[in-house]
Amino acid sequence: MESYEVTANAKVNLFLKICGKLPNGYHKLFMVMQEIDICDDVTVNIDISRPAEIAVICNGMDNTDPKKNLCYKAADRFYARYHKKLVEEQTKEKIVFPYTEIVLTKRIPSEAGMGGGSSDAAAVLMTLQEHFGNPFSDEEMNEIAVNCGADVPFFLYGGMCLCEGVGEVVTQLEDPPKWPMLIVKPHIGVSTPRSFAQADKMAISGYDREAYRAMFDRILEAGTDLDKVEAVVKENRALFVNDLQAPGIEEVPVIADIIDSLEQAGSSLAMMTGSGSAVFGLFKTEDLAKTTRDIIAADDRFADCDIYVCHMI
Description:
Blueprint: E1 2-21, E2 27-47, E3 54-59, H1 70-89, E4 99-105, H2 116-131, H3 138-146, H4 152-157, E5 160-165, E6 169-173, E7 180-185, H5 192-201, H6 209-222, H7 226-235, H8 245-251, H9 254-264, E8 269-272, E9 279-282, H10 286-297, E10 306-311
Parallel strand pairs: 3-4
Antiparallel strand pairs: 1-2, 2-4, 2-5, 5-6, 7-9, 7-10, 8-9
């Protein structure tokens, strides 16, 4: 048996714009995602001596059908695409894939908009790609990834990326300063399908691609000077929009209270990530992030929230 151990990091959306709806029902997106140092542990055990099967064991999450886990989907899609590729290339008469056991130790909260399941799935895809000697090109891996979930392609790259289309068009960006961050996750999650359905009913403003490009150029020029970075962020605050935030607040009103509390405590930028319900706040110092954590933890309105101090990576 061969065993691979990898970490799967969470993400936050620094902004998320909905740019229309495709005929297949998927939404066109324009968003920047940033990896953070909250992570799951993923172990992939591959055993050629056992009958072909995909098994998923999830520590830290109960009552979940393993076959509904994105990791199962990732392995299944990888093997199906690899089988097709080998048949097309006529390299083997009979193809038998190995027993594949995926063991997850969950730390990234679910129903948070932090991409935990997508990150785990990407970790599985990259592990299988390595194990089988890199049979797929980057483009093919992207195609497999987006068929598992819209956020999965981002996690093949990590860091900070601009993601477009339904998530499959990924452009790596230069890493920004490693801002300290506070994540506050309400106990109640937000329904992603409902959020998108509600967003479709709302008047959503367009976006200026060049304005975003100019802003990120200025942030990168500021380098590690967080005072300058904060000035750029505040000057361009209107660009930091999550079009799913308003539907998220409708479903989980405490999200608005968390955002307000983070801003009152001195966060340079506070907003919901993804489809929610987690909210992040960026801080210039870790001390300020930790002080804010204590303030949030002492507030009865947020008694059922999970709170994390973390960093961009």
